[in-house]
Amino acid sequence: MGDRSEGHEGRRTIVVIGGVAGGAGAAAKARRTDEHAEIVVFERGPHVSFANCGLPMYVGGEIARRDDLLLQTPESFWRRFRIRVHVRHEVVRIDRAGRRVEVRDLTSGATFWQGYTALVLAPGAGAIVPPWPGLPAPNVFTVKTVPDSDAIRAWIAERSPRRAVVVGAGFIGLETAEALQRRGLHVTIVEALPQVAPTFDADVAVLIERHLREQGVDVITGDAITRLEGGTAVEAVALASGKLIPTDLVVVSVGVRPELKLARDAGLAIGAAGGIAVDDRQRTSDPSIFAAGDATEVTHLVTGAKVRLPMAGPANKQGRVAGCNAAGGDMRFPGVYGTAIVEVLGLVAARTGLSAREAAAAGLAFDVSYTHSLDHAGYYPGAEMMHLKLVVERGTARLLGAQVVGERGVDKRIDVLATALAAGMKVTDLENLDLAYAPQFSSAKDPVVMAGFVAANVARGEIATVTCAELRGRVADGADLQLVDVRTPAEFATGHLPGARSVPIDELRDRLGELDPARPTVVYCKVGFRGYLAARLLQQSGFGAVENLSGGLLVCQE
Ligand code: FAD
Question: 323 CB less than 6 Å from ligand 1?
Fold first, then answer.
């Protein structure tokens, strides 16, 4: 076994484990911080600094050239940074007392020691594959590395499969479903939880699920795979419900598990959220070891809680901070808001901050508001509906989180909202944001401003709202409610809430006598706007308790 422990006199040696988002960023920042340090990166896989976020698009063919995924090579790292990158080299042990790591060259099988002054751990997280009966099988894949994606592409090219099952409806599952459909396969998504896109609230996820079905994807929620059936390859997946889904290909995207073995074996502290514990300088419980990326925990900046949020943005920023500090600099990474975006078959869904479910779990008192606005002026061609849900702290009107779904302009709105969140803004600030407007880009009342109007109306107590779930709960409890549908009779005829009376908004003033002002009243329409008008009208006409169904029927369907 060789020994590469000896550094040069007075020269810092920085060793980085993992050479993708966090690791590559750490190494490059370390160089910019200390031009004279020796910097060595060990990467277990065949590629350094590859674009894992682009893998589903490579499977789908939108990214046609494999080389476009390979952002750097060991040679380019050496040329630009004088950083030694060793691919197919796995770090198998950290000797903290000796300040060295044991490395296995996966090509030759030889091991050697490499000494360090500072160590950066960026080993990421591995794709979880449950131990289903029927594994291993040649047509069951994950989408984590370039070779994974090559394997899917090769199977499609060689076997011309017709059907695919994607297990898990998180971001990668959704993107993979699109990729496979683009390749001409009929896709079934199987999700064990009761909804797709589980990081969104159920009433927002329903919009995504509806879109998937409209686009021809079969969606099965609330059902889990129990085994894989077939001969030399999987031919069907069996579900807990007893259903058997025939398939020619399975892609598993049920989440990732942080790579903790090295850290655990070395006795580094693992946090309660299940990631390597680090401070805001990305320092682990050992002051000469730093960590970054999917293997670590981060602070959620709305709740202050430690969470794991395996995303590329935080991994890159953490890597930069870890690399700087490992090289003697002083940078901090405060935490994350959990901002994320996904596109599936033309629909874009994005979120930042807390969902209503997360706000409830954090014990916060909050209100939600929904708005459905066009992404730009309706009279300019191509305007599409955008759905926006805000989560707002009750009492302070502070924005806690936002979810946006639509076909265009979602990225811009979520980034405005993420910035508002970082600035600690209230919804009463949102309604006065001075955002850019011309008809092709937005409306004079931008969807974010519109959401601010509605949420601020609630925060100021101008209008009381009820969510669909609250309304259902009250009806189930037998509450005495006067339910008024203020849509047109034609809309009412297409379906309405049980027990509702139809009084279209334009007739409401003349038909007030048909309603009882003493009874608690809930008004509703399709999206919440006519309901809002009706609620204001009734409130000023002697009705004591009036609520508008937040977001209307659009977010209140089974
Ligand atoms: P990784 O990028 O996973 O890198 C860790 C590396 O460490 C691996 O290459 C591994 O081989 C290596 N390693 C592990 N252990 C050792 C060892 N002992 N010795 C040597 N090397 C080791 N995030 C977004 O924000 N937006 C997206 O659109 C998005 N899309 C994604 C799509 C896909 C298909 C995937 C898989 C991920 C996506 N992500 C996305 C998540 C994002 O890619 C990760 O959060 C990010 O790459 C994490 O960076 P990391 O450096 O912590 O880990």
Answer: no
